[in-house]
Amino acid sequence: MATKQLQCAPTPARPRSTNGVINTTKAGTGDTRVVVIIYGQDQEKIVSVFADVLGKPYRIASSFSAVGSEDHGTVIGMATSDAKVDIGSRNKMLMVAINAHCVNLGMPPDVDLSAASDYEFLYTETPFFRRDLSRFIAFTLGQISHHEALITKQRTYFISTTFPDVRTALSNLDILSVGSDAVEIRVDLLKEPLSDGTFGAVPSLSYVGEQVMLLRQRTELPIIFTTRCTRENGRFPMDNPNLYYEYLYRAIQWGCEYIDVEVWLPEDIRRRLYEQRGNSRIISAFHDFSGTFKWPSPQAQQIFDESRKYGDIVKMITTISSMSENYELEYFRSQIKANNPDGPPLSAVNMGQLGQLSRALNTVFSPITHPLLPIVAAPGQLSAAEINGALSTMGQLPKKNIYAIGSFRSTPQATFFEKCFNELGLPHNFASVDRGVKGSVEAFCLQPNFGGAYINPPLHSNQPYIPILSDAARTIGAVDTIVVRGEGASCSFVGDNATWKGIRATLTRDFAPSAYKDRAAIILSSSGEDAASIIFALRSLNIGKIYTVGFKAQGPLASGVEPFTSIESVQRVDQPFAIVSALPPEKSHLVQPLLRHFSSSGRLTPTRHVAGIGGKGKVFVDLANGPRKGDPIAVAEQSGWTAYGVADTSAFTTVETLRLLVGQNVPYSFVRLASGRGLY
């Protein structure tokens, strides 16, 4: 297969901040360069959607030389034919070039344009997945960072899609990815059908790009892009190292969160990929199938040292012949951790049945399988449920009692928890109990096997038996999740708040965090307590002025919050970017006049709506739960708002609550599936 070497490939600028909306309480600024969207024939409308997602106006330019510093804050659209003229001489410090290619056109992207762009976004026009675009642009511009959040978890897992065509996996992906923190696409296992009925020895870049696109459209998990060589149990040929560079660099351009780079590759290739990785992270990988590798040997340390030079995570996988080698690995792991406190973290397991103990003991990106996969990616792989079962048997995952405390109606998340526990193979007991009289929550906490609780309605944060509070719980003044840290007499309770994270995840589902920066928002609520988590979520997105209806903010959240006092005060307000209603169901219809008043006429840039791809420029979230008067969601959508209901925020809150309580990831899509409503 002929390949085009990318010897002079551009280097995507390192984002100024990788503190994304996922892992901290403040969204990072990210890449502040002018965003230039290169679009194909008759695809100008994609520019308006990028602008919509970023919350910016846009204009069309005829060349890169026509883009100047005055365009900061504006998304620039440029036709493919115009972009090809001077993309190579553009000011890379001023602008970031994204080649947006619609695969429905039936032609692969222009090879030269792909190579010269900073990033490439592949999309389908019908159906169009706006959330895919939102995630892509937020990640590539450094506004979100999965890695910074994942490396702080006690355990992380990833599942490998061992399918020759990822379409085969899509229908089961919600279930396959339960317990996983990332999903790996094994590029070397893909089989591209040819016109003569055979398969290509190596899948083409255009085929691989579409496979990555399809996978990202159906999962919110980070993607690990892997090209495993023949010597390391893969199918990619080893005679042309530049082939690896071409595919791995293109994965960076496609916005894959993790790139698996084998340590046998020439140092120059590994160095270039590391320097050009943008916001992606490099997994520096070593696999040994010879059976001669030994963990106590100097070779093991040498491989780690070589791997860490150009890696954000070091992965070492080997075969063993005796059980004792698992303990040798654990000693090696402990030495690496002690001698390298600042990382990079080590993911190391032994293959085969003898090595399954090491898979249970590994805590960093353990590769897992699932019964629904056609083959295991490596000998001896276990599922998340099997690993949890093994940990429980070894006493590393003691059985606990975990509660949802409140009325059944007020805790919609409770119905999902047991299904999630069963799918994860967790040993814990789960019970939904009434809150009862004052002091009853403390009584549950003092039980000997108490493992945590979700509480709705939340507790006030000043409970004497909850000595530690997260910043969010302290500022909001409410605890909806009690997390147990430690064991036995040394255990302590931590009060946290998951609701604000669920609200924030909803707000950023179809919009980048930067869309909210310095924009106005309106909150309707009967009390400041009910609105506190909303204010905190909006503040985490660097929102501007917040206006309130029905309450007056108090305490640490009061700054920058102004109540509406009359119709005239409403009329004086600029167009709000977000309206969030926490009114009870019987009053939820009161938001409808505001939705109509601030209708879509206030868009940043008027654009014609195109079926299947048009975006809506503002956000409405209705948190009312139960029978209500009117239909605020329908009114919002008719008035040009992107609207979400309590089912969305509840599902995202469940995801965050499970992460806090049991430290494992259950995707939003599975929560919606388990609740009886499919996501797609």
UniProtKB/TrEMBL annotation:
Q: Which Pfam families match?
A: DHquinase_I (PF01487)
Entry's InterPro entries? Aldolase_TIM, DHquinase_I, MurA_subfamily
Q: Which intervals of the chain are annotated as region Disordered?
A: 1-21
Q: Which Gene3D superfamilies match?
A: Aldolase class I, Leucine Dehydrogenase, chain A, domain 1, NAD(P)-binding Rossmann-like Domain
Query: What Gene Ontology terms describe what this protein does at the molecular function level?
Result: 3-dehydroquinate dehydratase activity
Q: What is this protein called?
A: Pentafunctional AROM polypeptide
Q: Which organism does this record belong to?
A: Lachnellula willkommii
Q: What is the lineage of its organism?
A: Eukaryota, Fungi, Dikarya, Ascomycota, Pezizomycotina
